[in-house]
Amino acid sequence: MVALQTRRAAPPVHRRRRSPDTVRQRRAGVLFSAPAVLVILLFLVAPMLMALWVSLLHWDGQSNPFSGSARFVGGANYSELLGHDGLLRRDFATSVRNTLYYVLLDVPLVTVLSFGLALVVNQRILRGRGFFRTVFYFPSITSSVAIGVTFLFLFQGGGAVNAILSLVGVQGPSWFTDSRGLVQIVLAGTGLVDPGHLPGWLAAQGMGLSVWDWLAGPSVAMCAIIALTVWSSSGTFMLFFLSGLQNIPVQVEEAALVDGASTWQRFRGVTLPLMRRSTVLVVTLALIGSWQVFDQVYVMSQGSPGKTTLTPAYLSYTTSFGDGNFGGGAAIAFVLFAIIVLFTAVQRWFGRERS
Amino acid sequence: MTGRKRYARLVGYALLAVGTVLYLGPFLIQVANSLKTDPDAASHPLSLIPDPLSLVAWGKAFGFDTALDVPLVRWIVNSFVVTLSVTVGRLVIDSMAGYALARLRFPGRRAVTAGVLAVMAVPGVVLLIPKFLVLKQLGMFDSYSGMILPLLCDAVGIMLMKTAFEQVPAELEDAARIDGAGVLRTFAEVMVPLARPSLITVGILSFQGSWNELTHFLVATSDPKYQTLTLGIAQLTAGPLQGAQQFPLKLALATLSTIPVAVVYVVFQRHFVRNQVSSGIK
């Protein structure tokens, strides 16, 4: 990908001095870029600034937030989110916990799966590769709402997924009603922990949640949503890996082949290191996407069961439009923004090229 | 060697077959179950053969059930109005801005380029509430302009067009200029036709993106008369038809909303594959 960019980016600076033309160009340049600049200022920069202001207010979404009728509360919305114990902080902590588990499962799964798909559809000995590429990419272009409806159907209590599971003798869970986390299910099921009588350290509180709740793991409902995103986004990421694979010079592979390297050795020693950039890109995009999950939650679960599918984006929406607390909703949006920037920065640092 | 090769090929095809079932299966189940009766869909969700074949769900989708309000025609009209406006608007705005950034020297060019790149870094959901604020302030809440104009912010499209124009040889442009063509004519008659593949790419991305859009319409409207197909289905599923109710109807609607994008996908396949990768340069 990045190679693609550098190849194209040679800037056309060979233009001679022509003064009347220069004037015309200056005028045309401003005029041509004006619509784009205007739209960006009006619907991106202005909203951000306004929301930053609103996040400092106690505003219910009704009056004009700039007339002074809404009470200025300074950092109160933020401290309600991060500092003082209350429902909002507990919900926010829950949504962050849910997303952390989401990231933990979704990012590795989708990266490995899409890399695998790319490797298979890149095999020259296979015929019909174009067809399979089309098939694997198709879910990526369809609407998350339509897919959400379909997955909701698949993951019903008596749905298709449980029907398949029962074929192999497993009794499937009731996906969207069981609010226990996977880790909790395992720990309680093996009798290691009795949820009724938590030992002291598990009952200890952090950000309004007990350690037991923090360690809950994703609920089965969240797992269903993760399955949906892995399925629907792997096609896009497959294309990223595919273009990375196609940028590997044939000579490199041939040299390895001549050296007598086995398939596995070639993969480990040649392909994998050369795919570093693509992998970093895919992991970054998957990570950013994980923090933004909204549509699926809106359609499939509305945050339930037991708030285990609540995500920061969805919470920001319901806090504003459901509870009429727009200051709080805006504050969540900015904290979410900060989290995404932080995660991306950390991830970039780990994925940086070491010379 | 040939034995191993055959083995590898066999494994490859087996993997592809499993993959195809997994990736197309949900769509087949979607269509098949939309043609079932409610009890049939509930008891045989995995079966691809409706027994009995029933068009009741599709009838409801088209509004033949007075008990449930599914204003499908309105949804579809709204979807097309918004999607086509956004697509045309983006094509015009993106190609103009892309050309200016690629080829015209004007004050502020660097700043605009940097700004567009910065826009790409802003995660969409962070803008949910901010967009509502600005629309409310501008008096554009619950209006087509409020649904369309904010979606014209398209940094990816601008960068795609910029790259496309940079690849056009400068000689072609110079020739047009020597012939006495002004900037506008050079742009419209020489540059735009040469950037056709990228324009198709931007067009497809815009069509698909705004047809599937949910969050923006969720915060830009509250009046049901502005519901698009995607928004309508989402609100129906999260509201009156929450839970396990009337799945065949919901699946029929889901199928309907998939059709236009699927058609565009099949027709313009080549461009889809190209654009997704180039739009990933973030």
From TrEMBL, chain A:
Cellular component aspect of the GO annotation: plasma membrane
Checking Pfam families in the record gives: BPD_transp_1
Q: Does the keyword Metal-binding apply?
A: no
Region listing for Disordered, in residue ranges? 1-21
Location in the cell: Cell membrane
- Family to which this protein belongs: Belongs to the binding-protein-dependent transport system permease family.
Q: What is this protein called?
A: Sugar ABC transporter permease
Supply the source organism for this entry. Actinocatenispora rupis
Automatic annotation (TrEMBL), chain B:
- Per its UniProt record, what InterPro entries does this chain match? MetI-like (IPR000515), MetI-like_sf (IPR035906)
All residue ranges annotated as the ABC transmembrane type-1 domain in the record: 76-268
Location in the cell reads: Cell membrane
- Which Pfam families would you find in this protein's record? BPD_transp_1
The membrane topology term of the UniProt record is: Multi-pass membrane protein
Which residue ranges does UniProt annotate as crossing the membrane? Answer: 7-29, 72-93, 114-135, 247-268
Q: Which cellular component terms (GO) are annotated to the entry?
A: plasma membrane
Q: Any idea which UniProt keywords this protein has?
A: Cell membrane, Membrane, Transmembrane, Transmembrane helix, Transport
- Please tell me whether the keyword Chloroplast is annotated for this protein: no
- Which GO terms fall under biological process for this protein? transmembrane transport
Q: Where is the signal peptide?
A: none
Which family does the record assign? Belongs to the binding-protein-dependent transport system permease family.
- Name of the protein in its database record: Sugar ABC transporter permease
